[in-house]
């Protein structure tokens, strides 16, 4: 497997002409060959690899989804990501070895030539990627990163990196606003996000800066001039607007490279390896079988058939099952019961059309394959709806004077609109996929707001953060950070279930134990191990963590 990954890396590097090595950047004596890299090729390649490194497939998104209870994976049951786990290694390797070095190459070659738009975009993306890596791992190499000849860089403290990244964002924004540079070369189709639109990139730059300030609000004394920076951003109010979601759209192409959403390819191609967490499903359905303190009890979320596709339509599953709720079938987090390891490739519920370009659940059921959907769905990093949730949190905590309730309403409206946008774009030409109606949307939002109005301050925060968690499905990186910062959403607790406990089989013959055996839930990991085979065995200055229940990130208070 490791050799296969290396071969694929080499292939991708060749395809995208990545500028990551000293050899490639050396002066070439051939007069017919360029002596400097093509900025357009560097940008498109780095944006693509950034998305891969932070997304699903053989990367961090797969296993981290289990940490935030979107999915259940037998590979990392009960917070079991080890120092040898492939996904953290692959993400660390892609970001450090390819993406970030390319951003530096863009900056180093764009600035002397006056191509400041390229430089501003690269600085904005470099700040975003490093911030995510800090959020995942804490102290990592930053100031000594990418120094030629230095093979053992020292890690910087997470708070120092955050301060440096905020300064980098400010520098990048200044580059983007360089009116003289705007008349020179700037990205077009080589920019997968905004096609070189300077105003959109400036608004994203502000939005990323807001995200860093929000995430550090409990440690604001560690951030230089935190309050004035926040006040200036809020007063300026130039963040991404509707339709400017920071996301990478996968598509239907399979040749020469499969560009379908990796979660679709993995989930619809035979053996079932990732399962929808029943806890997540019950919260969206408004049920209380295993979520007796469900903050949305009695509210059926209209996004459910877009999030999940049930292959079953009555009748029995292939094998004895652990959890079945109508036609929804899955396994529990941390389960070790007799049915948790059974196969059920044509019975288990799949990820739906919104999350990965799969099937919309029309209630008819049917086993799926790679012909069942398009895989044309985006990997979300910061959506317009996520921005509104961020602003709602700041209002709730008294950091701004805005109306948190109104912002929650806007966040929910934007999140549902995003589902409709993706569903319309991801459906197959002959498929009938209805959109969520304004009436259904408004009924749902009114029900959520009624819960919000009745809640105390802590309950209001739970509602905002749990809805943000739902909206961020398939973006587990931010969900993982949000949970550690706020304690919400509350995670699955076997002690908070109703009889018969853990299992539910309301419409078919009981084929599970009355109570599914669950191991003792492990302590929650406050950060990830450093990849042993990528860092701690090669860098004498990096010491492996020994107790992940201890906070490693400065904002984790």
Automatic annotation (TrEMBL):
Instruction: Please provide the record's keywords in A-Z order.
Output: Signal
Q: Name the SUPFAM superfamilies on file.
A: TPR-like
Q: Which PROSITE patterns match?
A: PROKAR_LIPOPROTEIN
| Residues in the signal sequence | 1-25
* One protein family per Pfam: SusD-like_2
Q: What name appears for this protein in its UniProt entry?
A: SusD-like starch-binding protein associating with outer membrane
Could you tell me which species this protein originates from?
A: Sunxiuqinia elliptica
Give the lineage. Answer: Bacteria, Pseudomonadati, Bacteroidota, Bacteroidia, Marinilabiliales
